[in-house]
Protein 1
Amino acid sequence: MNLIFVGHDLLANIKGWLRSPGTVFWTVLFPILLILIFGAIFSTGDEIELDLVVQDHDDSLISKEFVGTLNNISGLNVIILDRETDPREYMQEEDKSALLTIPKGLNSTIIEYIETQFNPAEKFDDTINFTLYFNPSDQTTTSILKSIIISVVQHFNLNVTGGQIIFGINEESSISEDFEYIDFFLPGIIGFTIMTSCIYGSIERNTKFRKDGILRKLLTMPITRSEWILSKMLFMLFLSFISTLVILIVGVLIWQISIKINIFVILLIIATSFLFSGIGMIIGRFVKEQETADMAGGAITFPMMFLAGTFFPLDQMPDFLQSIAQVLPLYYVNEGMRNAMIYGDFNKTLYFTGFVLVFSAIFFIIGVFLTKWNED
Amino acid sequence: MVEKTVRCPNCGSITTCNGHPGDIVKISCSSCFLDGKVTFKKIFRSKDIAIEVTGLKKKYDNLVAVNNISFKIKKGEIFAFLGPNGAGKTTTVEMIESIRQPTSGSIWIDGKDITTSFNDVKEKISVLPQEFHSFEKLTVKETLVYFSKIYKKRADIDYILNAMDLKDEEKKYYKDLSGGLKQRVGVAISLVNDPEIIFLDEPTTGLDPKSRREVWEVIASLRDRGKTVFLTTHYMEEAEYLADHIAIIHKGIIIAEGSLDELINKYGDESILRIKKSSSKNTVNILKDNGFDAYTEGNGDIAVKIKYKERILEILSILKHDCIEYENIDIRRSNLEEIFLKITGSKLLEAGE
């Protein structure tokens, strides 16, 4: 492997890139514009203020303490509803997204549990369930509220029983308390930017360089396809890291986004670059004309941008569109980035990063395999 | 790979088989199933031959783009592969450059079979593909340095810039150069590895006459440096001006081959010597009396058909001896366009349309 040429080619590409204001614009300024625009739209309030209606059927000290805990959560506006009102009717009339009922018997259940603790012969295996009414058309709010409630209930379980679940909750929430909408968009913008620069970069290599005779010339020179692809991939990684860095700097400085940078973020950036470069190579193989290839690139990136939850939370979309998202590589990139950078959910990060790595291996290998320099 | 046709000694039916020179290939008669062996003769190549092509064929489904062509190119000469658009020039040169896979035939570069050892010859050759455009945002010098890094053997870049008269342009971006300069840079790129053989595929297509002339001078200088040049072109003036050896390809077949003089002598008409505004009305008769085929043209000029150039001096001495004065004399001999027309019945530039 001629690593001297690989390094030289990388430098030549960076030089050419820096001398092309248009390309620099699309790589650096475009994501900045996106994050500024979306930041301005979604950061009008400091934090999300969500209404949670609570109906307390127990009306005990413990239920009041539970409501008090909910009240202390920043960004959560607890509205107390009397016990007689029908929850569904109230939600319809008042246009509320979520309503939580505290079951009657909460206090007595706890007492029973405590009593069993003094009598080793008895075993407590009862649970009591809270009910969360939600509006299915506003799943974003309910999913956030649900996460908060799960956290609080789990906290209660921990305090009362030392860990035994008696309140019918079996989920965990990893949502950060200072979650803002802009946090949701930043990883999406990173994924989207890497996708566009890698797909169009690959298309350029495979169509423009073919048209310009550069690929034909390379075929007659002592350079291998792997050396050429390696040097181009290093350049794509350079662009990916540059744009990520720019997005993060703008996000942190202007929108005070709190993000986590860990090995998964690095892995995701690398895997995403390989993934979309592979897709670009596949497009470049089948669509020879550059203009047509650019259109084909647009036809793939544009719908993916919306359907993969880059700008809008997926759960605001109809079910069939959510199903489509499950097969889109960008969806896994976006979710992986969000979990790694914002939510800090290790299991989900691992899950989505795994998918991205598999997608990236498949598409990149197919892309390399299909990339041809010679003619038929 | 060479295709060979064999007649069965038992039933007389024809069977074809493929093999490399030196191979002994087992075959079986398709009719009587008699088994036999075919020996592909080993070819001993002269060290003076840069490129040798034998029985080269390229077939796309039912279209035969290149049909069983053979030729040799001597070291140090400019070989022009002349033909109209679509004649098979680029397909042929791209097979020699290993860009396309031949259907059959063998190609040897510097004594090496490129189907098995093209990587060995990559350091020795250089290619300027048709309609080549380099990286727009690199300067001329950066471009040359870029391509030179791919090779083990590297020529001095400043020497190339001076030799190609590109020193003044070395800091200009490739995109800012004129068409002629871009092609000159293309030829300069071809020199970064100090190659022995240079392939130039239609290097002047799309250039204005002045730029074309400039590129011709650059190509001519390659011969002076001892390089072998394989030039494909559809411009007959280019082949006439530059080539030591010319092969004319038409519809995938080489229809004529040789030096310009050989082609004209073999296929061309006699040259015409034209005497303008002769002072004597008897000039035609005097020349006829001396055995020349002379006649008066419609505009009054006297035309004399001459087969051998030695007879030009004879005509001039007759005119001097008989004190015949004239305003001007010109000699016109057949050109490649006329030869192409004569062989194919169509004009070179029209044949590809």
Protein 2
Amino acid sequence: MSHHYLLPDISQPGKIGCSLPQLDVSPAELPPQELLRQELELPEVSEVELVRYFTALSKLNYGVDTGFYPLGSCTMKYNPKWHEDMAKLPGFASIHPYQPEESVQGSLQLMFELQEYLAELTGMNTTSLAPIAGAHGEFAGLLIVKAYHRDRGDKARKKILLTDSSHGTNPASVVMCGFDIGVVASDSEGNVDMKSLDSMMNEEVAALTLTMPTTLGLFDPQIADISQLVHERGGLLGADGANLNAFLGHVKFGELGYDYVQLNLHKTFSTPHGGGGPGSGPVCVTENLVDFLPSPLAAKDNGKYTFTSPAKSIGRIGNFYGNFSVMVKAYAYIRSLGAEGLKAVSEDAVLNANYLKEKLKAYYYLPYDRTCMHEVVFSGKWQKAKGVHTLDIAKRLLDYGLHPPTVYFPLIVDEALMTEPTETEGKQTLDAYIDAMKEIAREADENPEILHTAPHNTPVRRLDEVRAARNPDLRWEMNSQRRKE
Amino acid sequence: MEVMSKMPSPYLPNTDADRSAMLREIGVSSIDELFQDIPERFRHTHFNLPQPLSELEIKKELSKLASRNASLDNYTCFLGAGSYRHFIPSTVDHITGRSELYTAYTPYQAEVSQGTLQTVYEYQSLVCQLTGMEVSNAGMYDGSTAAAEAAILACMITKRGKVAVLNTVTPTYCEVIDTYVGGRNLSVETVELNSNHLSSDCACLIVQQPNFFGYFEEVKAYVQKAHDIGALLIAIVDPISLGLFKPPGDYGADIAVAEGQPLGIPTSFGGPYLGIFTCRKEYLRQMPGRIIGKTVDVDGKPGYVMTLVTREQYIRRERALSNICTSEALMALAAAVYLATLGKRGLKQVAELCYHKAHYAADAIGKLKGYSLAFQQPFFKEFVIRCPMAPSQINEALLKNSIIGGLDISHMIDNAMLLCVTEVNTKQDIDRLVEILGTL
């Protein structure tokens, strides 16, 4: 079955994709007609047709299991297969969130221990696993900041400072929490411009959110000074922990002076990205913020595990306790690697990124020529001068069977190519990528047309995004009219 | 250079020889040198974590932890209240288990992401067919956050700052709506509207159909009340009920949201789930979340892309409508496969099985001495019973018989329990429950 079909095209009346039990009780009277549905038009397909249709679609996709996926800031590392098996154990997958606590002690213990491990790894006091994704964790973190200042009776702090290299979710989260935004500049080295921070950090600022390492893949050596400045003036220091893979098992956010950090289990802790979720975005806080954490928290009381609600909690941020099955996978990851294994993870992540940097910096402009952490940000500006854009380079990589890096981010780098190899790639894979990137740089000089028209051998070629936005076609429609045709 | 660990890690393909060669190319003598930007005093900290275990050993430990839970494979369960036990056909697990799909990320490179993109287009279409609404996004975190984002959208559309929630909406949903709406310094009010009017400064009225107690609201009257003052009606629905009952698009809801978990997603101790979010076409350009659209490539071949991205955080930053980025894409795929597997007949049959079995159970329990149904309105698969003793006491006795009873809501209604019966509960299960209740 070709993927040019959609479900209605293969639907035929009378088909079904599974069998269902017959009614084993005497039927009740149906409620009044006005409550009942008149018509339900859903596709009707047999099991084999359904499976072939979705299998054909899956083959059009590129995942980490397909090949190298250096999407910067997304930490596309390999996801161990057995983690999936563990999350599907009936004792984990087939339990209801409202079962009596004594019947879910295993889950509560796992959550409690994972909270402790993440607190230890970040140097924080307590972790909440409630946030469902990274941006959800940012949201929780900023609500905690708001609650903390309110609790102190400080109502003047209405602003959150961000850096100009921050993720798009950062400013969006700030607005969701009712704060104003101040943007701190980066200096020529890619670090926080201390003069800019100094001039902005006043009694209206509730917190500075600073990704560490920054989205430029650089560790800011001024971190202790930054922390001191922010705290002296009554603010809190928060981290978007998206880049923890850079110093996992080496450095603790708490020791750097951070008050809270939000993690991404689907990045650093190797749970799959699912095509855009499910993720998990725990928030870890220092002791002075524990009372404000979202509820509930897993706790241990006299050898029994239970849920508690922090005293001054920001409240509930999702209907239940977070993405539990994602937690199972992250737990498996931490337990199977231990402190030394996690340290080895960030060492290879940093080694791989620096290797790419050294091998490619003669071919692509490197805006910050210094040791990088887990990712390296190149600029396509040399190629741009010849009329070839970063988008063309990215599309050409697809022809080489490779997934491109994150492009056009961070915004402060012109024609950015943000490349994060992760530790789960070996030198052989990196060398193949380096060869492809060198070849593309040569093509940009000698045959730019091949880049402008790339990709050539993907399931579809460049898609008309303008048309998609102007005349939105967001669904098929199926009605009895169509079925009769 | 140092040797990393005694046993090589299965997840680190570099050999020590590779590492040495790479360090030479970089021009440093040790990996430690690569960490030199981090001040020395932060670098040599101790991490107190358990010793690492092999795959074999940790699998045993995790199996042991899992066995400490009462799995619903071994227990009969009558819990609902926002997380529902429904039959999941194996097609769902096998298709969501295709690693091309589950190891990919957000489809930024559309040319190699058509699998993800087309399945989301299918999801959006199926959800619109099911709800009778005009447009759907690609899914949100869960039903409660979808409801909260809907409330905020209503405030933006109407330029009003107050959200009204009917007092029969699931209490935990109210808490989440409170957190989100309060975050933006807007206000929430719980309302009881039998004969009252909605105050004219409300942006929306949120109604759950069927409501937390399981029975159907006279939703048309609420739609009228909302529209009379220029507010939006936000419906929270149970997607399985729509196999049999009137969809929100038919009764005039402006935004309809739902917990998508019943559509092929395991209960998994509360997550990951799926927030279904649908609305009228006129709100499309303000709708939060990801949206996939159909278009053509340079050769005129049909294909799919993320569209209307100027609403989203990674383009628009602080002017974005929501901060949502990573969502629940794989769960949306599960829901699409579920709906396609069941199709029009299957979904209707599941809804009918739930309806008749729930009524069979309610009828039998209602006849027991000391028990009665708390509400007389029509219901779908959940209902409230008043018990002759504390529900906690009943649940304790049931648990000893490998039955997980209903949700204790005695803090809301005296000695009341909210029960849920679905197609996975057999007549035998229900008869046993009734029998034990009768002996207490």
